[in-house]
Amino acid sequence: MVQPAWQYDEDATPLALDTAPVPAYGSGSLADLLPTLAAGQGVPGLDATLTELAPADRNCVFLIDGLGWEQIKAHPDEAPYLTSLLATSRGGTGLPITAGFPATTATSLASVGTGRPPAVHGLPGYTARNPDTGELMNQLRWKPWTDPHAWQPYPTVFQLADAAGVHTAQVSSPTFQHTPLTTIALSGGTFHGRLSGEERMDLAAEQLALGDRSLVYTYYSDVDGKGHRFGVDSDAWRGQVMYVDRLVQRLAEQLPPRAALYVTADHGMIDIPFDEESRIDFDEDWELRAGVALLGGEGRARHVYAVPGAQSDVLTVWREVLGEQFWVASRDEAIAAGWFGPPGACDERVYGRIGDVVAAAHADVVITASRNEPHESLMVGMHGSMTAAEQLVPLLEVRS
């Protein structure tokens, strides 16, 4: 069989795992944000690990899906207000925080809402194997159905804050009110569904003012949607960035006294060309398929589940074929390296959800699955891995 153009060079050296830029769990990741804010409001049982953030009585988190740190820096003309806030990021340090691995929506929203890393909350990717059934579960769309509270049993920070007497609210699209992901990651207090971005900003400001202590979350998804479909340098994506820049300013100008607004994201994004070298089709590659029972995750952050007894062989082949373009680790290596959380933090119930082999992209390349993932394979903008474009997210701050 003729080998594809991207075929591994036998004389090349695979990427060393210790060169992967591991997320800053416990000191500067999305999982540290809400616990820090709520601890500053007097909510018991939480640690303020983002020590650079000064406490505020009223805190609002605005999460913009897909708008990473690198994308804001690269588009000052489209995002003048956000750009003006870069120096205020992370308590005035001017630094970003990290999303967590993989840098994808379901994982990141669970990290935000529970204040726990993926190895603990248990949503380790876009899709992951359910060890109890052997099925591949989509953790964003929650298919096939799985009991949400069995899958993620920990309370959310919103629930802890609400129990401690903090006025707690989420303001988002009505579509998300009753989803399992909202239930296990973002519930607590009251949910307010509003369709337009302007309505969400206005209502978030109103909710923030309702309590002497308030914790409010609001969300906008269309930057991510346009990035996936058209790419992060398209006119459609740029238009969304311009729109959300105005939304942030609208909310900031309505902050009540003693309030802090934090603007962040769940991940960044990069564009992947449509060529053989950049898009490796798992469904058409006999070598990568050998010994693989299920392919999970997404293009730039793959969970590979081997047939029983083939784990070592699959790791060897994936490392040999992809090792210059991906960090390729066994499950135990990825856990020990801190990819999914601090070493030693992996819950027993989460262990089997992580792939026997985990592959995180270093180069501008993806592993697609044209037959089994036709929609995802046609996306222009991609994310999931540990590169700066995907992993670094803003923590922009405005105080009243």
In short:
The protein is of the alpha/beta class and 400 residues long. It has helices at residues 33-40, 69-74, 80-84, 89-92, 105-114, 118-121, 148-151, 157-163, 180-185, 197-209, 222-230, 235-252, 286-289, 311-322, 331-336, 348-351, 374-377, 388-391, and strands at residues 58-64, 97-98, 127-129, 136-138, 167-172, 190-193, 214-220, 259-264, 270-271, 279-281, 292-298, 301-306, 326-330, 357-361, 366-368, 381-382, 392-393, 396-399. It starts with 32 loop residues before the first helix and ends with a strand.
What is the strand content? 15-25%
Low-confidence spans: pLDDT under 50, at least 5 residues?
A: 1-9
Overall pLDDT metric: 95
Radius of gyration: 20 Å
Strand order of the largest sheet: 6-5-7-1-8-18
Structural class computed from helices and strand pairing: alpha/beta
